[in-house]
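*Target chain*
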Amino acid sequence: MPVHRSGTAAPARRRLFAGGTLLAALALLLTLPGAASAAGTATVPERGTARMGQGVIAHDGQGGTPSTGTSAVQTEGVDVASHQGNVAWPTLWNSGVKWAYVKATEGTYYKNTYFTQQYTGSYNVGMIRGTYHFATPDTTSGAAQANYFVDNGGGWSKDGRTLPGVLDIEWNPYGAQCYGKTQAAMVAWIRDFVNTYKARTGRDAVIYTATSWWKDCTGNNAGFGATNPLWVARYNTTVGELPAGWGVYTIWQYTSSGPTVGDHNHFNGALDRVVALANG
């Protein structure tokens, strides 16, 4: 007669239960913030680290650099953020760079930790300089971010050495490329920012963007070209198609791999036109 061993099935059930519990715990862990990054499956950067042109290569690619033999007069400039640390401003000045834009803020939660060295350092070597704000339209309103920008380095003065502030509006490095907004809502957000900035400073903000992002996220809105100078991003031999509403660009970011700091730009005109933009 077979003998029933009641203790054999129980340990097996306990092992199955324990295994199921462990799998459930792992599944929960992977849903927690930062877990995907820890697992090596995500590339979402830390808040505050976004920089001008961060998404250009991933979304638009890159080609060659513009020819130096162009007949149009261009004035070389750079844009910098905290990831570049202390910048070698005398080296840039001696290489022919005459103007600079420095990241001041992002959203309403971040201020550039290298702001003083970068903003004051560029001024001290003789450059005309200004500041930019990296927009995060999914966190707070356009007005709130414009005010935060002005209050933390984004102001303007008519001294011939200070350029108007820049709204850096481009791909979202932290999530959906259009920040979860409809095209109409994005246009309204941008309008809220630029209107508030002008009310605070008396200047129209420069808008930095890429044509493909502008098409996707604003529906290629043509309502800003008459007032806001365009800074367009395209890493190629020619500037290419511009966003609707702008017949010309004021600044062209043409590379993120230039000498000394990486992000190099052409201002569309001679140095006196840079001064004219500074003076308004």
Remarks:
- The CA atoms of residues 89 and 121 lie 6 Å apart.
- The beta strands are 74-80, 99-106, 110-111, 128-134, 166-168, 206-209, 230-233, 251-255, 264-268.
- The longest helix spans residues 6-30.
- The chain has a mean pLDDT of 88.
